[in-house]
From TrEMBL:
Gene coding for it: cheB
Protein name: Protein-glutamate methylesterase/protein-glutamine glutaminase
Active site: 186, 213, 309
Organism: Georgenia yuyongxinii
CheB-type methylesterase domain location: 165-367
A Pfam family matched in the record: CheB_methylest
UniProt lineage: Bacteria, Bacillati, Actinomycetota, Actinomycetes, Micrococcales
Superkingdom as given in the UniProt entry: Bacteria
Domain (Response regulatory) ranges: 28-146
Domain notes: Contains a C-terminal catalytic domain, and an N-terminal region which modulates catalytic activity.
One GO MF term: phosphorelay response regulator activity
Function comment: Involved in chemotaxis. Part of a chemotaxis signal transduction system that modulates chemotaxis in response to various stimuli. Catalyzes the demethylation of specific methylglutamate residues introduced into the chemoreceptors (methyl-accepting chemotaxis proteins or MCP) by CheR. Also mediates the irreversible deamidation of specific glutamine residues to glutamic acid.
InterPro entries given in the database record: CheB-like, CheB_C, CheY-like_superfamily, Sig_transdc_resp-reg_Me-estase, Sig_transdc_resp-reg_receiver
């Protein structure tokens, strides 16, 4: 079989904006989909924003690769399944050629679509959106696509400013031993989680609870993938399960995941209560519940993602005396969620992914407290003042 074409290296005039650069006119978008109807639909949705310009369309992956080099778009929207060269192979070819233009995959809400989308994210895609159902009207389809695509395109095209580096203290020095680790992520989260879980040499000494903003069919697939790539036993969370060390529980899509005390043990609570600040599952809700149940023995990790979900929850963790780590801007796809926590003065550390993996691995063992993982009990330490921290430690690679 003939291998897919490899695009040449980008010309010096490559226009990709990168993290932290100011907008320079409209965001230039290339739309790739084998369906002419979908191409028109996406183009129409993007046309609702004067800050976005569709500079080209492609009907297959080969054409998309050629147009990326020719047109130098700021962002590409890419169908997963296309003739000649599918979206996954096209993303791999872009990354192999050193082209880091952000790619947003368009996917169907099916098991097959979820599998293909996660494959694309692993290959280097930046994010994904679900295609509107055929059962909705044209206007509703346009509204849904605009609501999903527009903020992602702007976030990926313009990036975010970096924190100024400071001298880093040793990771976790003086941290309170954990009895649970809670993690929250959104855009870029599936790949960040895969790298974290894959970096663990042995099952963690404490239970992990994860909120990733994803539909239900996607979270089942995500849990299965995380379970296969490392020593941690990972499942999609169900209600009323006792937390166990070495296990991770991924919030099901469109359901909230929290924790409740059951004597001296702790159980999961999975509910369909209303979204919190538009999110269900909500990182804030999980973090708050963990802080209430575990107090100072909770460690919270905020990974790459758009928006501010997790900031209020991090505040609750800090007020309870717990520990908050956030992913750094350099390793984040979008430094929205972790940046909001850091800029609010709530982060103990601002760390690259590999350091976060070490923090998770060490969380339940510092001070020899791992034996009580998943139970309520006595870390007995002085909480941080409610006003926040004087400033996070920033670790640079």
């Amino acid at each position: 079989m003939t291998p897919p074409p490899q695009p040449p290296p980008p010309a010096p005039s490559w226009r990709g904006r990168g993290r932290g650069r100011a907008p320079r006119g409209p965001v230039r978008v290339l739309v790739a989909d084998d369906s002419a109807v979908v191409r028109r639909l996406v183009t129409g949705a993007l046309g609702r924003d004067r800050g976005i310009e569709v500079v080209g369309t492609a009907a297959d992956g080969r054409s998309a690769l050629a147009q990326v080099v020719e047109l130098l778009p700021d962002v590409v929207t890419m169908d997963v399944e296309m003739p000649h060269l599918d979206g996954i192979a096209a993303v791999r070819a872009l990354r192999a050629a050193g082209l880091q233009v952000p790619v947003i995959m368009l996917s169907t809400l099916t098991e097959r679509g979820a599998t293909a989308t996660l494959d694309a994210l692993t290959a280097g895609a930046s994010d994904y959106v679900a295609k509107p159902s055929g059962a909705v009207s044209l206007n509703e389809s346009l509204r849904q696509l605009a609501a999903d695509l527009l903020p992602r395109i702007h976030a990926l095209a313009t990036g975010v400013p970096l924190l100024q580096p400071t001298t880093a203290a040793p990771v976790l020095r003086g941290a309170v031993p954990a009895r649970v680790v809670v993690l929250g992520s959104s855009t870029g989260g599936p790949e960040a989680l895969a790298r974290l879980f894959g970096s663990l040499a042995e099952p963690p000494a404490v239970p992990l609870l994860v909120v990733q903003h994803m539909p239900a069919v996607f979270t089942r697939q995500l849990a299965g993938r995380l379970d296969r790539i490392g020593p941690t036993e990972v499942v999609e969370a169900t209600d009323a399960v006792l937390l166990a060390p070495g296990h991770a529980y991924v919030a099901p899509g469109d359901r909230h995941l929290t924790v409740v005390a059951d004597g001296d043990r702790v159980r999961t609570a999975v509910t369909d209560t209303p979204p919190l600040n538009y999110y269900r599952p909500s990182v804030d809700m999980l973090f708050r519940a963990a802080a209430e149940v575990f107090g100072s023995a909770v460690h919270a990790v905020v990974l790459t993602g758009m928006g501010t979900d997790g900031r209020d929850g991090a505040s609750a963790v800090v007020s309870a005396g717990g520990t908050v780590h956030v992913q750094d801007a350099a390793s984040s796809v979008v430094w929205g969620m972790p940046g909001a926590v850091a800029q609010a003065g709530l982060a103990h550390d601002v760390l690259p992914l590999e350091e976060l993996a070490r923090a998770i691995a060490a969380a339940g063992t510092i001070g020899g407290a791992g034996a009580g993982a998943g139970t309520i009990g006595g870390a007995g330490v002085r909480p941080i003042a409610r006003g926040g921290l004087s400033g996070p430690r920033v670790v640079r690679r």
